[in-house]
Write a structure and sequence with these properties.
Blueprint (H helix, E strand, L loop, with lengths): L2 H16 L2 H8 L5 E5 L5 H10 L2 E6 L2 H9 L4 E3 L14 E7 L8 H11 E9 L4 H10 L23 H10 L3 E11 L2 E5 L3 H4 L2 E7 L2
Parallel strand pairs: 1-2, 1-4, 2-3, 4-5
Antiparallel strand pairs: 5-8, 6-7, 6-8
Helix pairs in contact: 1-3
Length: 214
């Protein structure tokens, strides 16, 4: 086996172990597509798409440190504030726009979702589900802001300012004329990602939506 190919495979497996949901996102993306990752962090998902799907990738990130990591991986990443939108991108100019754990930290998540649907032919959006049964149980029994694997912060230091549920996000798409192409609930833990097929708004702690603007 080619040494570079083996190293790439090992790097991918390391990423999937840390972020198993990335494997499902990669499965959605068609080979050789153009991809824009909003809030791409250190570029692990972009690099995985580049290696496994030969995708043409770019990202937007606000952290200078994370951008340096992306550049070290050979990735093209813009510095930008996602609350300001995507004015530099034309309508339907990208095959896939991806947002993973991003919308809940924004001041204007509705605006960015509409912008992503304008720019991308499809949008892949990963959200933590505030309707998960553990969240409901903690609120009911203890009356405190919940802490779970998907929402591990205390109320005073959480970056999450706009939490949502699977049902809420579904209704948002319906109210804003966005077609839900695919909706999948997951339970994440110990390097694995298990699909939830029954009542995902209750049993899933994450969901992946694929949406588009008709």
């Amino acid at each position: 086996m080619n040494t570079n190919h083996a190293a790439s495979n090992n790097a991918l497996e390391s990423v999937f172990k840390e972020r198993p949901e990335f494997r499902h996102i990669i499965d959605i993306v068609e080979p050789r597509s153009s991809v824009l990752d909003l809030g791409c962090g250190e570029g692990n998902l972009l690099r995985a798409l580049q290696v496994s799907k030969h995708a043409r990738v770019q990202g937007i990130e606000v952290s200078d440190t994370a951008i340096q990591e992306c550049v070290a991986k050979g990735l093209f990443v813009y510095h930008g504030d996602l609350d300001e939108g995507l004015a530099d991108f034309n309508d339907h100019s990208v095959d896939y726009v991806i947002l993973t754990n991003v919308i809940q930290v924004l001041h204007r998540p509705d605006f960015l979702i509409r912008e992503a649907a304008r720019v991308g032919k499809h949008c892949i959006i990963l959200i933590p589900n505030f309707g998960h049964w553990r969240v409901r149980l903690q609120l009911m029994l203890f009356g405190t802001m919940p802490r779970t694997r998907s929402l591990p912060y205390e109320w005073y230091d959480s970056p999450n300012i706009h939490l949502t549920t699977i049902q809420d996000f579904t209704r948002f798409c319906e109210n804003h004329g966005l077609e839900i192409v695919q909706r999948t609930g997951f339970v994440l833990g110990e390097g694995k990602c298990r699909k939830v097929r029954t009542k995902p708004n209750f049993f899933a702690d994450y969901a992946i939506f694929v949406i588009r603007k008709p």
